[in-house]
Design a protein that fits this description.
Structural class: alpha/beta
Largest sheet: 5 strands, parallel
Number of helices: 11
CATH class of the largest domain: Alpha Beta
Number of domains: 2
Order of helices and strands: EHEHHEHEHHEHEHEHHEEEH
Radius of gyration: 19 Å
CATH architecture of the largest domain: 3-Layer(aba) Sandwich
Distance between the termini: 19 Å
CATH superfamily of the largest domain: NAD(P)-binding Rossmann-like Domain
Shape: globular
Helix content: 25-40%
CATH topology of the largest domain: Rossmann fold
Length: about 270
């Protein structure tokens, strides 16, 4: 599928952190129907250095200028930068692909605004699994959705709640439950760590009804997420173990791959899954 008379969809990436840089590299390497045309970051000089070896280095633009440059805006920035990227993208009627789903939860008015401007907000699956199944059962009656996240302690050491409470995870000997409650409450306590739980809530029965636990577990070496769903049509359990990235132990390697797959789907003539 092409747009603009056969031209590929243009893509801009808001922030070149662990995920953004990996996605940018893949786009620079060539994905049919897609073209990287702009990147951005809080540190423009660092961003320029990061893309120096690209075959076709994209211009480094201010965050709020990305919507002027591209059809698709991938947001993978710190939460404080979210609206600089998302606001203009929705106003310009672009395709916004946000990874900071926890922050999106605070700005759900963007969804209503998108209806007026023609924008589309597409949340990638990220490091989770089964969102297609959850969307499917949500068309019927869902009795419960419960999710549990277990991460190596270093993957949660910088979480907002852990820092504010002065919890020392450096010498943890056994699993420690840091949180149990609704996804919405978790989003306020772990804004940079529970994006996938928010995505699960939005895909299913909502962030208030979806139950969630967060564990720091020295016995795991992968970011592990388990989901249990009970509905009038089916009952299922799923577990995924994501290998953390070297750059950021809180982020699984599969997150960037999920974004790339979501971008490919935008131009696909054939796709599989709900």
């Amino acid at each position: 599928m092409k747009t603009n008379g056969g031209a590929p969809l243009t893509v801009a990436i808001g922030s070149l952190g662990t995920v953004g840089l990996a996605v940018a590299r893949r786009l620079d390497g060539g994905i049919p129907g897609l073209r990287l045309v702009a990147v951005s970051a809080r540190n423009a000089d660092k961003a320029k250095r990061a893309i120096t070896g690209f075959a076709n280095p994209a211009p480094v633009l201010p965050l709020n200028a990305l919507a002027e440059a591209a059809d698709v805006i991938v947001e993978c920035a710190p939460p404080t930068c979210f609206m600089e990227i998302a606001g203009p993208a929705v106003e310009k009627g672009r395709i916004l692909m946000p990874l900071s789903v926890t922050t999106l939860l605070e700005h759900m008015d963007l969804v209503e605004r998108a209806k007026a401007t023609g924008a589309r907000i597409i949340v990638p699956t990220g490091a989770l699994l089964g969102l297609d199944a959850v969307r499917g059962v949500a068309e019927g009656k869902v009795h419960s959705v419960v999710m549990m996240t277990r991460k190596p302690p270093k993957g949660l050491a910088n979480a907002k709640f852990v820092v504010e409470q002065g919890i020392d995870l450096s010498d943890l000997k056994e699993p420690l439950k840091l949180y149990e409650g609704s996804v919405r409450q978790a989003a306020a306590m772990f804004p940079a760590n529970v994006n996938i739980a928010v995505a699960l809530g939005l895909a299913g029965i909502g962030v208030d009804e979806t139950r969630y636990q967060v564990w720091a577990d020295p016995g795991v070496d992968r970011n592990t997420h388990s989901i249990k769903v009970d509905s009038d049509s089916t009952r299922f359990e799923m577990t995924i173990e994501n290998i953390p990235t070297e750059e950021n132990p809180a982020t699984g390697k599969n997150t960037a791959l999920s974004v790339i797959a979501a971008l490919r789907r935008l131009t696909a003539h054939f796709s599989v899954g709900t």
